Amino acid sequence: MKISTIKDLLDAKVICCEEGLSRHVYSACGSDMMSDVLAYVKDQAVLLTGLVNSQVIRTAEMMDMNCIVFVRSKMPTAEMIELAKENGMIILSTEKRMYEACGLLYSNGLVGNRVKNV
Amino acid sequence: MSEALKFHFDVDGDDFTSAGKASVQVKKNLRQLGLSPETIRRVSIAMYEGEINMVIHAGGGIADVTVTEDCIEILLSDKGPGIKDIDKAMQEGYSTASDNIRSLGFGAGMGLPNMKRYTDYMDIKSTVGVGTDITMRVNI
Predict the structure, then answer these.
(1) How many CB pairs under 8 A join A and B?
(2) DSSP letters of chain B?
(3) What residues 43-62 of chain B have any CB closer than 8 A to a CB of chain A?
(4) Which fold has domain A3-107?
(5) Which one of A39, A55, A79 has the shortest CB-CB distance to B110?
(6) What is the pLDDT of residues A41-79, one digit of tens each?
(7) Per-residue model confidence as pLDDT tens digits over B84-135
(8) Domains and their CATH numbers in chain B
């Protein structure tokens, strides 16, 4: 799924790295616990979270993810945006809650079935 | 690569925001060495979890990463409270972290199991009241 499609489906604002919106993601992960995110490697995934701190950006970077969606209108801090820009990480923010945001992406084909244990 | 490459980091225990900086740097260094993305990902996730653990449980510590022809070795050493029951700590979901740490997105009891999951070898030496030394290796 194109990241621009995710933006449209979630009616999300682009916070940074807009130039990457044409990139694709093939799976998604929704969690506020970063260690749960770190437990499974997915290829080119998007992270949906309601957690706002620098470790969200670092976790996504460690996982080679290329897009983070903050749900429930959460906004990253200036420091987080700087970290994200350094890595070309696309940041979106949506008013939708986690359950609805995940459901919309799933029902539109981002099923996250490429999960693999390393 | 004839000689082993070594990287040393001091992990600051007072600043949760900067936790993970050493792992980010290691990831960059390994990329420059041209290692496979999967190897890099395994090393950096394992080290990142270890680094976070040192910050939230042990007040920081040191990290030494050695790259040889065969493997990448990560040594994490702290002078924190030590791990009372290592077998328990290795169980997924078991955590002694405070609610405050959980509100920061960690303390799900996945740190040590993740470190084991992503590495080919892991050894924990810990003494209560003295500190913890963790050795991890990822084969290249």
Answers:
(1) 75
(2) --S-EEEEEEEESS-GGGTTHHHHHHHHHHHHTT--HHHHHHHHHHHHHHHHHHHHHHSEEEEEEEE-SSEEEEEEEE-SS--S-HHHHTSTT-----HHHHHTT--SS-HHHHHHHH-SEEEEEEETTTEEEEEEEEE-
(3) 44-45, 48-49, 52
(4) 3.40.1390
(5) A39
(6) 777 799 999 999 999 999 999 999 999 999 999 999 999
(7) 999 999 999 999 999 989 999 999 999 999 999 999 999 999 999 999 999 9
(8) 5-139 (3.30.565.10)
